[in-house]
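Field: COMPLEX_INPUT
Field: COMPONENT_COUNT = two
Field: RESIDUE_TOTAL = 226
Field: MODE = joint
Values follow.
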Amino acid sequence: DVKVTQSSRYLVKRTGEKVFLECVQDMDHENMFWYRQDPGLGLRLIYFSYDVKMKEKGDIPEGYSVSREKKERFSLILESASTNQTSMYLCASSGPGASGANVLTFGAGSRLTVL
Amino acid sequence: AQSVTQLDSQVPVFEEAPVELRCNYSSSVSVYLFWYVQYPNQGLQLLLKYLSGSTLVESINGFEAEFNKSQTSFHLRKPSVHISDTAEYFCALTGANNLFFGTGTRLTVIP
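Field: COMPLEX_OUTPUT
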């Protein structure tokens, strides 16, 4: 069974802390995505990557960075967490190639609370 | 520009009643359309998709959606809902180079 695994389901951090959200997929997918989900706003794309060491900004990249050193792993980094980054974060992957017909496979989500 | 609009943020419906979740899109290029479902405390998963061919597509659990190009819609329907259908439903499209999600519709099935 194909899988996208997010390392932490729930995190509580303090303002100013550095936060790492890890995502691993076992499907050999080229494409990986980080979304943020907030009530009434749906899913908003933060960053995505079409290949190892490649990254592209999505709709709301401010305050975030990403790392993709290996094909299966895509990390989201909050350099200095702020309370307005309290949210549900969803990782997804897709393949093969960059076709718009690809279906996204999502992880279970990481709920981050910043105090 | 491309966008997806889900007209209803919440839809309550009694068990065994029919339901329609509305989705309209805007795009100047050909699109692929999807419905994803998110059950409580889970990530999203694909419910059904339209890529080409027949405009009526079905899921394994009784949902169907019809691609209507003239009305730029992709509404999701089920003739008789179950308690287990309670979830949030997201319409999405891909076009030239991006994937767009609607804001979601929370379906609550009432016993």
